[in-house]
C-alpha cells in the first residue's frame, strides 16, 4: 500500500496530491486542501508505538504534538505543522513546558505509553520498553547491554572495551545521581524532533517511555538544538517552580544519558559513534 492509498483508507477522504517529505515521510494533500503527514513504519509495532507515544505526551497539552488521525500496521497519519524559524520566546516557553510534561510522570521506569507495545523503535533501531522498579536496572538492561552486544557482533568493541560498559552497569546505582520518580519522556528529543512552528515548539517522532528526565535534556544537547541555553535555562526555572528542581550536578551526567543514543547509533551506523559511546561510558565512570 502506498501513501495515497493509506491516507484515503485511514482518513476516509480523497487525496489530491502526494509529495515526499524525506525518508519514509510523505506530505499528502486531502480533498479540500488540508495537508497531512503520512509516515511509513520502520518495523513491527512502530506505528502503534508512535501513535501511543503522541497520545500520551499530548494528554495534558503541555507541549504540542501532532494529532494522530489514523494508523494501521504499516502507516501513521498525523497532523501537519508548517515549520518556522526558532525564536527566543518559543524556546523559553518550550523549556518550561517540557519540565511540566516530565513531571506528569509515568507508571514505572521503562514502561511503554498506555496502549503502546513493549517492543518499539528509536529511529530504525529496535527498543524494548519494560517496566522496572528503578532507573539504573532498566537503563542497564534495556538501554546499554543490548546495544553493546549488537556492537560486539559487528566487531566494534574489543573484549577489554566491553568491560568498561560492564563496570558502568555495575556502578549505575551510584552513577545515576539522586533518585527521582519516573518521568514522562519523549525519549528521542534530538534537534530534528524539536519542531519550530509559528505558534511555538512542537515535539515530533517520539520514542516515549517512562524514564529519567535528564535523558531528554541530554538528547537536546547531543546534536545541537537551536537556542539550547534558553531552553535549558527555562526548563530549570520551570522545574524549580514546580517544586522539583534539577539536581545541582545534573550536567555531570549528560554523558551517561547520551550513552544510549550513541550506542544505538553505533549499532546502526558504525565506527565513529562507537568511539563516542566508549568515551561517554568512561566519562561516566570518572
UniProtKB/TrEMBL annotation:
InterPro entries for this protein: Fructo-/Ketosamine-3-kinase, Kinase-like_dom_sf
Keywords, sorted A to Z: Kinase, Transferase
Q: Which Pfam families match?
A: Fructosamin_kin
The text of the family note is:
Belongs to the fructosamine kinase family.
Q: What is this protein called?
A: Phosphotransferase
Amino acid at each position: 500500500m502506498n501513501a495515497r492509498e493509506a491516507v484515503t483508507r485511514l482518513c476516509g477522504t480523497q487525496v489530491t496530491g502526494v509529495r515526499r517529505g524525506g525518508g519514509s515521510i510523505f506530505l499528502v494533500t486531502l480533498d479540500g486542501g488540508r495537508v497531512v503527514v503520512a509516515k511509513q513504519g520502520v518495523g513491527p509495532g512502530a506505528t502503534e508505538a508512535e501513535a501511543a507515544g503522541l497520545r500520551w505526551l499530548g494528554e495534558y497539552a503541555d507541549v504540542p504534538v501532532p494529532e494522530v488521525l489514523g494508523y494501521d500496521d504499516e502507516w501513521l497519519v498525523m497532523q501537519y505543522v508548517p515549520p518556522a524559524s526558532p525564536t527566543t520566546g518559543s524556546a523559553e516557553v518550550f523549556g518550561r513546558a517540557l519540565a511540566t510534561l516530565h513531571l506528569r510522570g509515568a507508571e514505572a521506569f521503562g514502561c511503554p505509553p498506555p496502549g503502546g507495545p513493549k517492543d518499539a523503535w528509536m529511529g530504525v533501531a529496535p527498543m524494548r520498553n519494560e517496566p522496572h522498579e528503578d532507573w539504573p536496572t532498566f537503563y542497564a538492561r534495556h538501554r546499554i547491554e543490548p546495544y553493546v552486544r549488537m556492537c560486539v557482533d559487528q566487531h566494534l568493541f574489543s573484549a577489554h572495551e566491553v568491560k568498561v560498559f560492564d563496570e558502568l552497569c555495575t556502578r549505575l546505582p551510584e552513577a545515576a545521581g539522586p533518585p527521582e520518580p519516573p518521568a514522562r519522556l519523549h525519549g528521542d528529543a534530538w534537534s530534528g524532533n524539536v519542531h519550530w512552528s509559528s505558534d511555538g515548539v512542537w515535539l515530533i517522532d517520539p520514542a516515549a517511555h517512562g524514564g529519567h528526565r535528564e535523558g531528554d535534556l541530554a538528547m537536546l544537547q547531543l546534536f545541537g538544538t537551536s537556542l539550547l541555553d534558553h531552553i535549558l535555562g527555562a526548563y530549570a526555572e520551570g522545574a524549580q517552580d514546580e517544586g522539583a528542581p534539577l539536581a545541582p550536578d545534573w550536567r555531570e551526567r549528560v554523558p551517561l544519558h547520551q550513552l544510549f543514543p550513541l550506542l544505538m547509533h553505533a549499532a546502526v551506523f558504525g565506527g565513529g559513534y562507537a568511539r563516542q559511546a566508549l568515551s561517554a561510558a568512561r566519562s561516566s565512570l570518572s
